[in-house]
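Meet today's protein:

…
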Amino acid sequence: MGVPLRDIIADYKVPVTWESLAGIAAIDANNALYQFLTIIRQPDGTPLMDRRGRVTSHLSGILFRVSNFMERGIKPVFVFDGQPAVLKQATIEGRRKVRDAAGEKWKAAVERGDEEEAYKQARSATRVDTTVIETSKELLRLMGIPVVQATGEGEAQASYMAAKGDARYVVSQDYDTLLFGAPVLIRNLTVSGKRKIRGRQITVSPERIVLADTLAGLQLTREQLIEIGILVGTDFNRGVDGVGAKTGLRLVQKGEFLAKLRETQPDFDPTPVMDLFLHPPVTDDYAIAAGHPDPEGIRRMLCDGYDFSEERVNKAMEGFTVKAGQKTLEGWFG
């Protein structure tokens, strides 16, 4: 998922403390849900489920991560994807095939008792479906957390909100957010402090990327950064074979973007992709004011509806108590 720009962005990632992130955060909701579903799993890759077999990993992720946000003064606004762009259809279909194939490999690994392979394939099979989205929105509303429905890409809408000053930063794992013009991108905010990568545990801490600093350091315009994205491949176009981020950077800096495309993909017009990043469909029809939480509603949904432990839910809701002398979530948002 996202544009593979890590190799040229790495020098502009700045570690930040949780305490420095207080304020309104526009969260790429679909990206966050994908993280929850991918990470919150049993050792063999099986997601958390209730007694009826319904997946609950995303609900657990929302409850405990949002509670953690609030304890630290972060006011989340979850921005959900709208209608995908026509240009994205090939990517969507490709991802569906990969997930389906991974799902079959996961079943086979479970049957032969290969737990490590099962976990790996289960992560690859992760999908954010309609049920996940709707139950997530239901829980967020019960928690009093603002939900924004994007017209198109959620990360584009979140970037627009941050550029307007309605949010302090955008939260996403994807570098696409920078191409959409997010002034500040915060990564690793919706994942846990410890993650298992390739069989080993690593510590994951929040990091900040400032678009203006990145462009200045790379001596690029935002349009040129998008050109690099087009060369390496985005959700909206197939990249050029053999061109990674560093090669793309060199080509763009030398003014050879169009020449490389004409040489390798003579029938491809990059203009619609460039326009989609520069002028994505967004809406001003949103509200970022938080509502009041409904603790009883949260318990009914999670404990009665999805078999959550009432003790754990109550503990998570303690996180709704905030600092600065304000005793309740209602007082914080009031």
